[in-house]
Design a protein that fits this description.
By secondary structure, this protein is mostly helical. It has one domain. The protein has 3 helices and no strands. Helix 1 runs antiparallel to helix 2. The longest helix has 22 residues. The C terminus is likely disordered.
């Protein structure tokens, strides 16, 4: 699996978890949802993502879909 796919899975999970926490624990968890959304937005414009750097340093996935075995 590529780093990009891991990022999508992590971001989607963060959004769903924070929405559940906002519903059942405290609406302040919506700030975390906004934080994830803003990071996704800025990465679309700047082509830089902190989670990508973290995953690459951890040795997760490849950087290109061409290297992925199908």
């Amino acid at each position: 699996m590529t780093v990009e796919r891991y990022i999508r899975i992590i971001a989607g999970s963060f959004v769903l978890i924070s929405l559940a926490l906002a519903h059942w624990v405290s609406p302040y968890w919506l700030w975390f949802t906004a934080f994830v959304g803003l990071n996704l937005l800025q990465s679309g414009f700047t082509n830089w993502c902190l989670m990508e750097d973290i995953l690459k340093k951890a040795g997760v996935g490849g950087s290109c879909c061409c290297t992925e075995k199908k």
